[in-house]
User: Which sequence fits this backbone?
């Protein structure tokens, strides 16, 4: 494919992300371009001139970019991809929660050691220690996810947003379920739930 | 003769469905036939044709397949049963519309005569 056609198509498809639909559009527009070029060649135009006229006939890249971007927004594939990212975020949050509670379980089962450790640091019974431990668990659960999001989707804020939404939603639902089942087991209160949800979203925005 | 853009925009769907009712076609072929049959009165922006066709396909009015045509492998568009029904409905609405416009125009002409 000539360079100028590649550049033209890239400009027209700027609002359509890498997807089957983008491949389809690229293929159909290329084939149409070839037919137009053949028509101009048959009329006696030089090859370069025929190619330029064919691109003119296809339409301005600015106009096509808007129209093709709008066409993408109506594709079923786009909705499937967004839901897939939401699900990915939910899975990440779920995995983070499982790891956090596995760690809590380990600390619980090694309680003697944990008590000795806190005594040696002089923080046994200190509420700041509890806050620190909660902050470490929260960071351990969410920060790797957000760093991974930043690295994996650094060119696509929209995809990051969907996965972040899935993360935040699952984390909030998990906490809400614990809250409903709380009884007197020392689970987070509603203000702390809302506060930490806000923190999750803030970190997501920072890393996004 | 070029038809007013706003008038022709609304007719594209009807015209494309009608052209496809006469046989499966690929994109360039549709553009060429539309221009030829209308004596270039209807000339759709060629790149814009594809998102338009894809919209019709998403609505179930068209289906596509790949085949050799014009010496090359191409995507051909086919009018589905649902597309045929939609075409019949649009043609009926178009006739009603044209009849209504004509009767108003005739009415104006009669007023001038009297």
Assistant:
């Amino acid at each position: 494919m000539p360079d100028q056609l590649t550049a033209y198509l890239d400009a027209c498809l700027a609002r359509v992300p890498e997807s089957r639909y983008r491949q389809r559009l690229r293929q159909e527009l290329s084939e149409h371009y070839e037919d137009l070029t053949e028509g101009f060649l048959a009329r006696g135009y030089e090859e370069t001139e025929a190619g330029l006229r064919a691109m003119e006939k296809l339409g301005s890249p600015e106009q096509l970019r808007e129209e093709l971007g709008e066409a993408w927004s109506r594709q079923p594939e786009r909705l499937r991809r967004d839901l897939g990212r939401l699900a990915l975020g939910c899975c990440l949050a779920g995995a983070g929660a499982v790891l956090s509670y596995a760690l809590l379980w380990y600390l619980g089962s090694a309680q003697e050691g944990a008590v000795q450790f806190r005594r040696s640091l002089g923080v046994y019974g200190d509420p700041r220690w509890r806050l620190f431990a909660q902050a470490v668990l929260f960071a351990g659960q969410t920060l790797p996810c957000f760093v991974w999001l930043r690295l994996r989707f650094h060119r696509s804020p929209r995809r990051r947003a969907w996965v972040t939404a899935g993360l935040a939603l699952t984390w909030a639902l998990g906490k809400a379920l614990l809250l409903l089942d709380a009884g007197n087991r020392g689970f987070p209160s509603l203000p702390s739930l809302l506060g930490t949800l806000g923190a999750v979203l803030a970190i997501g925005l920072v890393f996004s | 003769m070029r038809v007013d853009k706003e008038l022709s925009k609304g007719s594209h769907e009807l015209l494309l469905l009608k052209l496809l009712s006469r046989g499966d076609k690929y994109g360039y072929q549709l553009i060429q036939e539309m221009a030829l049959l209308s004596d270039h009165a209807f000339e759709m922006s060629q790149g814009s044709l594809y998102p338009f066709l894809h919209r019709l396909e998403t609505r179930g009015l068209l289906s596509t397949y790949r085949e050799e045509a014009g010496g090359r492998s191409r995507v051909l568009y086919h009018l589905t049963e649902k597309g045929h029904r939609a075409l019949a409905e649009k043609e009926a609405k178009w006739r009603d519309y044209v009849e209504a416009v004509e009767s108003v125009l005739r009415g104006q002409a009669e007023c001038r005569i009297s």
Notes: Chain A touches chain B at residues 12, 24-25, 27-29, 31-32, 34-36, 57-59, 63-64, 67-68, 70-71, 74-76 (CB under 8 Å). Residues 3-73 of chain A form one domain. Chain A has a mean pLDDT of 73.
